Each structure stands twice: as C-alpha cells, then as structure tokens.
Amino acid sequence: MSKLLRNALTMLVLMTVITGIIYPLAVTGLAQTLFPSQANGSLIVKDGKPVGSMLIGQSFDDPKYFWGRPSSTTPQPNNGMSSNGSNLGPTNPALTDAVKQRIGALRAADPGNMKPVPVDLVTASASGLDPEISPAAADYQVARVAKARGMSESQVQTMVNMSTTGRQFGFLGESRVNVLKLNLALDGH
C-alpha cells in the first residue's frame, strides 16, 4: 500500500511540474519569441503608452471620431471580462428597439446623411468586442467626421482607404477597418 501511495504522489508531483511549470514556461517562451506582439495583447502604442488593443473595440461618441460596432458587454461597453452576445433573436422586440435607437442616434449625429445605415453600426457582434467595422460603415461616417474635423471628405476617405485591411490571404473574411487605428491616424494628421 505504501509503495502504491508513493508512486501516486511521485506521479502527482511529476505531472504538476511538467504541466504546471515546464509546459506553461515553454509555451510562453515560444510565444514571446515567435509572436511578441500577439503574446502581449496586440497593443496599440502611442507616445510610448498603450492606448488599446487591435483585438478589442473601444467606444467613441465624439462626432470627430469614427464609431465602432455597438457592444453588448456589461457593465460597460467593450468589457473584455464579459465578452458575450446579446442573445436577442431577430424577432425579439428588444433587438428591434435597440436597432431603431441606434439608427436614430446615427441620424441625429449626421442629419444630412441619407445613405442606408450599415448593419454593423447598429448590431453587436457575437463577442460584443469587435474592434473593426466594414468599409461601408466607415464610408457612412466620412462626411460627419470630415465636417467635425474641418477636413475635406476626400482627405478623410483617403485615411479610411489607407486603414482598410483586405481579406486574409485574398479570400478569407471580409475587408475591414480598425476603428482605433483609424481614429489615431486622424488625430495624428
């Protein structure tokens, strides 16, 4: 019995060292060596200070900034600790009301804009943390941002075009615009 207990304790200590110390250190070391930016959160740094992550959206409501997708996280928007979708189905009146409210806010911020509102500006994603919008969502906001910044629409559109990332490998996903990177580029202009 004591030999069995000793073998069990030896295996417990050995597996704890392997899976609890050696493996995590090896994976962390490889990640830091091969993918340092991603391993550290894909941070966006401005003036030597992190201002956000390329992977988590931020909320903007000033007219001089591009606005991202709505976030369904609580207690505050874009809360990485509570990533989730709203779980509201397409026939749920709460979703319909939220979309109508968001459309109203977009129309109030830019009353002369009669373009159709892109769906990604009025619906949250499954994670509630999207840092990117579609080029159509960015195009919808160009006039408002240009007016608020005293820039021409073509200048702002050029910045949107420069901030647009194409499909991965040319065929996966859709083109997208990282809202934080675009807003930082506009602030630096």
Structural class: mainly alpha
Low-confidence blocks of residues: none
Q: Using the CA coordinates, give the radius of gyration.
A: 23 Å
What is the ordering of alpha helices and beta strands? HHEEHEHHEEH
Q: What characterizes the major β-sheet?
A: 3 strands, antiparallel
* Strand-residue proportion: 5-15%
Number of helices: 6
For the secondary structure, the number of strands is: 5
Number of domains: 2
Shape: elongated
* Average pLDDT metric: 90
How are the strands of the largest sheet arranged?
Answer: 3-5-4
The residue fraction in helices comes out at 40-55%
* End-to-end Cα distance: 75 Å
Care to describe what's here?
The chain has 189 residues and is mainly alpha-helical. The protein has two domains: 2-36; 43-187, no CATH class. Helix content is 47%, strand content 8%. The protein is built from six helices and five strands; from the N terminus they run ααββαβααββα. The protein has helices at residues 2-34, 36-39, 93-109, 135-149, 153-163, 179-187, and strands spanning 43-46, 49-53, 132-133, 164-165, 176-178. The strands form two sheets. Strands 3-5-4 form a three-stranded antiparallel sheet. α4 crosses α5 and α5 (153-163) packs across α6. It is elongated.
Strand-helix topology:
Elements lengths: L1 H33 L1 H4 L3 E4 L2 E5 L39 H17 L22 E2 L1 H15 L3 H11 E2 L10 E3 H9 L2
Antiparallel strand pairs: 1-2, 3-5, 4-5
Helix pairs in contact: 4-5, 5-6
In short:
This protein is mainly α and 189 residues long.
